[in-house]
Design a protein that fits this description.
This protein has about 240 residues and is α/β, with parallel strands linked by helices. The protein has a single domain, classed as NAD(P)-binding Rossmann-like Domain (Rossmann fold, 3-Layer(aba) Sandwich), CATH 3.40.50.720. It is built from six helices and seven strands. The longest helix has 28 residues. The chain is globular. The structure holds NADP nicotinamide-adenine-dinucleotide phosphate. The site of NADP nicotinamide-adenine-dinucleotide phosphate has 31 residues, from helix 1 and strand 2.
Length: about 240
């Protein structure tokens, strides 16, 4: 079965890996990023990899902007003829104690990781319903339940995302829309501008998380793995 999927923040990291896996399965995939250069680079790389540029679309869309989100969803529907799957992957985080966290950094984290997911779900739901059902898959984090010093805004945004996902799951399940949220542990990406560490082979790879998304979409209609935790099997002691 072929799906039409929109992945927010699919220009690199986990979102890019999800796009690669779904394209390899024959799906149509749109990815978003915040810059036209990043979006175009991702589209070229994904098209080259799957060998079918007609199934790939990249869009510039800051998920903090509800109007931009509405336009992105409409563009996907106009280009591919509908929407079946929304992967809310775009996310940011900085480490800073609360007493030193600037107001605009707090807003950037909450607006991207939580409000952005709301805007995307709100824009996508009518289209999922029009197709008779679909999936919403949210990228949360183990930090949502394992809070850490310096992570107050990030942990709060992801804990809020868990609650949002649980409520939405119950709200739309009878419309045949399945909502799942994934809680990865440490993943080897350049998350939020972080330098990739050397010697961090113990971390999950972005593709490990992408595989969870692919597996979810294979589940038969009667089953809904709603909350999935995935962690490195052998972290440093
Ligand atoms: N890496 C980890 O260890 C880890 C662990 C648990 C959970 N997660 C979660 O997994 C998700 C992906 O993380 P990652 O490590 O793959 O991150 P990443 O490598 O930093 O990639 C983040 C993606 O999100 C996009 N993005 C950032 N702000 C955005 C905004 N306001 N609007 C639209 N797109 C935006 C970026 O686009 P640009 O290219 O335009 O910047 C990029 O494509 C996040 O939600 C993160 O919280 C990550």
């Amino acid at each position: 079965m072929s799906f039409i999927t929109l992945i927010t923040g699919g220009t690199r990291g986990i979102g890019f890996a999800v796009a690669g896996r779904l394209l390899a399965r024959g799906h149509h995939v749109a990815v978003t990023g915040t810059t036209s250069s990043g979006a175009a680079r991702a589209e070229r790389a994904l098209a080259e990899r799957c060998g079918d540029p007609g199934r790939v679309l990249s869009l510039v869309c800051d998920v903090r902007d509800p109007a931009a989100v509405d336009l992105a969803v409409q563009t996907v529907v106009a280009k591919f003829g509908g929407l079946d799957v929304l992967v809310n992957n775009a996310g940011v985080g900085v480490g800073a104690p609360v007493s030193e966290l600037p107001h605009d950094e707090w807003r950037r984290i909450i607006d991207t990781n939580l409000s952005g997911v709301f805007y995307c779900c709100r824009a996508a739901l009518p289209h999922l319903k029009a197709r008779g059902g679909g999936w919403i898959i949210n990228l949360s984090s183990l930090a949502s339940k394992n809070a850490f010093v310096g992570g107050a805004a990030y942990c709060a945004s992801k804990a809020g995302l868990n609650a949002f996902s649980e409520a939405l799951m119950q709200e739309v399940r009878h419309d045949n829309i399945r909502v799942s949220y994934i809680l990865p542990g440490s993943v080897a990406t350049g998350f939020s501008g972080r330098e990739p560490e050397t010697g961090a082979d113990w971390k999950l790879s972005p593709d490990d998380v992408a595989r969870v998304v692919e597996d979810l979409l294979d589940h038969p209609g009667r089953s809904l793995p709603s909350r999935i935790e995935i962690r490195p099997s052998r972290p440093p002691r």
